[in-house]
User: Fold this.
Amino acid sequence: MKREAGLRHGEQPGILSLFRRKAEHLEFLSHLLPKSRPSLLRRLQPKLRPSSLHRLPALLLIPALLLLGPAGCWDRQELNELGIISATGVDLTDTGRWEVSYQLVIPNAISAQGAYVGGSSSPVNVFTSVGDSFRGAVSRTTQEMSRRVYFSHNQVVVISEEAARRGINNLMEAYMRNGDSRETVTVLVTEGSARTILEQLLPMERISGVGINRLITLEEKYGGNFRQISMFEMMQDLLSPVHITAVPGIGLSGSGAAVDTVDAAKTTHTGAKVRLQKVAIFKNNKLAGWLSTHENRGLLWVTNRVKGSTVSFPCQGERQKLNSIRLKKQKTRVTPVRKGSGWLMKIESKATGVLMEYNCPGSMRKPQDLLPVEASIEAELKRDMEDGILAAQRLKADAAGFGNLLHLKHKEEWKQIESDWNERGFPKVEIEISVHVKLAKTGRSIESYNEAFEKSRKKE
Amino acid sequence: MALIVFSISWIKPLSSAQNKVILDKGGVFLSASKGKKGGSAAGGSGGGRQGNSSGTKPPPLGRRVTATPLSLSLAVNAHAIRKQFSDSADLRLRMTASPAAPGIRLAVLYLQGIVDENNIRENILDKLQSASAIEVAPRGSKAGDICSRLRSEVITSGLTESVTTLERALDALLLGCCLVLIDGSGEVLAAEASGGSVRAIAEPTSQTVIRGPQQGFTESLSTSIGQIRRIIRSEQLIVETQRIGRQTCTEVSLIYMKGTARPEMVDEARRRLSEIDVDGIVDSGYIEEYIQDKTFTFFPTLISSERPDQAAAYLLEGHFAIIVDGSPFALLAPVTFFRFFQSPEDYYQRFDIASFLRIIRMSAFLITLHLPAIYIAITTFHQEMMPTNLLISLSAQREGVPFPALVEALIMELTFEVLREAGVRMPKVIGPAISIVGALVIGTATVQAGLVSAAMVIIVAFTAISSFVAPQMNIANAARLMRFLFMISAGMFGFFGIISIDLILIIHLAGLHSFGVPYLSPMAPWIKGSWRDTILRMPRWSMKLRPAIAQDGNRKRQASGQPEDQQKVDQQLKGQKP
Assistant:
């Protein structure tokens, strides 16, 4: 009966007719279509009423098929089946196996209103698994974790000095190959145990992994002493011609007890706190040594990586650094020049800044009055750079990236010296530094307060 | 006399041969008249389909296949008619007499409720009883002559006809005529007296605007046509009325602007309407379902509008309108997808805010479709795409919820649909109860009980609000249904599933047509210049052309745009300045 009705209206029975076009263009609408597609022009078929009820079963079949899906969604993972990891620590056991620590976020403890202080339970939980390989250790987490560890929101990887001295190539391999462990994660090195760092609670931060990541981001942006480095950038550095990278160090400073319980965080001061300190220089995948903060800043000037920094400098002829300038724009250009059997690096640096604190006598009203100020800042920067390069030369690690420049600009010579550049070539490099600092603004006041005070006293 | 001439044009007196032929096909009373300019007979009837459009299909009023001549006896005729109606209670018969026809018994017969009884009293009964014998019935006149004399000189109803068969008498009664039966005559006088109480013009309930006309269509066809005619006072506005429905004989008017609407398109609409053969048309929704291009789609291909101003604007742009007696919703076609996001108010307020609102409406449509699906996809497949803090916050909310995100979302969405339907169907008196149940029980209690997460409630709430933004309810209904497809697909395949359904949807939309107009035009296919009134609404002076559906050669709708005028004004101002 239904079929008859369908046939009467010139339709073919069957599921396929579902997909057959019924209404088509009227010819008068041909101008609406591009001329090059005449095939789209069809006449409107006589079409009257929905007699094709025989299609209904086919239509009902579609949702039925769709419902099969939810029952068997193979890679579905609900939010409450995940153990979100906010920080990872890499240590080495006494027997030389990898000891990977995880800072697991406890969402319930965090999403309650307010910060972690006052909360009854700890916002994070740190646990460790051991294995011969990095991912092997990770796979053992299932033995003690009720949930799948989820690394996509991992913020930092802290590597202990011990593990770093052994070599981080395994870690690199694991991070490069796996989709769930992001290579944009921030890397830090600690002198002690990495697990200890993960156990610390930070003031203001509910998840300390996130907090540490913010710490280093902020420092890079405003402090200029450290450079935040991700796993990916580290890989780029280590695969560059000089095979050197610098990773910020982190450690506990202060004498008091570590803040690793919620109760300890309930006081107004923290005893031992997490602090960025020193910089680890990696050479050929292994930790080669440490640089001080000051030395690292010099190297960052040379490698053009300071985003913003506050520099203290002395008055002319004095030693005590009473004055500060906030440097904003900074551009360094290094030109390698052949000198005898070795190389001379001509380093030209330009920086612009705003005076933030000035305690020296003297007028600053005329532009030429600023020249001596600028000169003393220049001297300060020059000293920073020299110290940094000297320190790197002492470690026999080209953290200034001079080798990369030679590789780019003097390809033939580089091929000859490439093999022992860090050991023999780089320590002998001579440097010639010229710095030009421009004082863009002196801030809201012109002369120093001391000067103004002296003047007012003289008037009396 | 003019009135009589007019009445002739209303129901053309037929020669007996013609009469016979058409009677055999049935529906002579309804199909015979060729009032193309039916708007002139806006009194409620007149007009009709064109004689050439009938073809092979069965007659629209299949019951009238015979032609029984009326008897000479009033009693026999009255009895025959009453028998046909099985003595229905609303059939009223009143015996009377007239000085105009001395000694001849007369009877007035009508169906109560569909006629205006005051009208009958004034124009028929009073006139019959007060007519003087001398002027009407010269001595020796026969009863047969009396009929035409009564018709031409006594009865003052607008339209009259003399009926000679029982079937036509029945039709006339059903259409709201008053029959005057004359004893001794084989003819019955049918006088137009349709009326009865109708709803007064009120504000549209489903399409409200802040600025703009505040009147809506009513159930009365003649009133609705009059509302459009009041806006477009042009002889180019054509109203073609036909009756559809074997039992209901519903008047359906096809309205268009001659010279602006494409004749081929109007022919197609006329053809589709004329092919409808069903026992009854109760609302314009019936017609919509019969004449739409595609049945198995979520998307409407006709706009149903409650607003005369919107209908008039569409007519001016070359669309046609179909108004069904008894339905306050006019059908406007052909329409494209983008039309459903345009409110009549867009044209009454500034172009910049109108454009902004259109973008908001489209975004809301996309949100209605996608938001729950995106939530499901992100929380079950793509957790890495969220900011860490959001992930942890959501994760804490999901902690302890016993269902997967998909089931959670389905529960909430279905709950909302139930609430919404209950809200529509519930008597207004207990309306507040549903809000309490909805807000407290569903919103707060389920979250506190740990059945669903708080984020899910937010998602469902926002989705629901977004679904109310569309100015056309039927496109929002399309989104309501498709949302579930998206959710299930997202629950199975994550974003991949959402994009798949999106692609299928776009392909489907690109294949849809509304009376031959591609549904996604003027975007796909791209029609140059038509973007000005699609997603954005450009200033009126820049919309110089009608949409491409308007007839070729008549697309220009305004003399010149503003820039040239502005230049002239500027020049004048400069010239006047010293």
